[in-house]
Amino acid sequence: MKQEYCTPTQHPKWFGLAVQALVILSQEDKSIACPSIELAKYLQSEPSLLRRILSVLAKEGFIGTREGRDGGYHLRKPAESIQLVDVYDVFRSGSRLSFGITETAGTHPLGKCMKSTLEDITQEMDDSIRGVLSKYTIADLANQLEAKL
Description:
The protein is mainly alpha-helical. It is 58% helix and 5% strand. The chain contains seven helices and two strands; from the N terminus they run H-H-H-E-E-H-H-H-H. The protein has helices at 13-26, 36-43, 47-59, 84-92, 96-102, 109-133, 138-148, and strands at residues 63-66, 72-75. The longest helix has 25 residues, at 109-133. The relative contact order is 0.15. One of its GO terms (cellular component) is cytosol. This is HTH-type transcriptional repressor NsrR. GO terms for molecular function: DNA-binding transcription factor activity.
């Protein structure tokens, strides 16, 4: 597997893996911690990458950790209370898409005007994404998954 060498805010893949890990943890027995190696195998992800993602989720209070032989991760909040927009906000600061779009504008007068216009458009895009994600929780995704399996 190819290793990722970036921060959580630099890679859009992190949001998808974080959401999937939270869905899996929502379906686990709360008294049993799920090891990162098991989550990584299930998600077909590099374990060290997933541990970095889980570390961010733990720091933000979405999940708890247990050390030791029976260690691993568990949801700290009810799945019904974790909106996808909350997870998105944790991983999105400095969106690569928005940065990439606005950075294409040059420093000449037209470029400066375009940069301002592109910033407005990318802000609207981000607001739209956040609006959609605020409609769903981890529990919603877990229920959809159960219905499909």
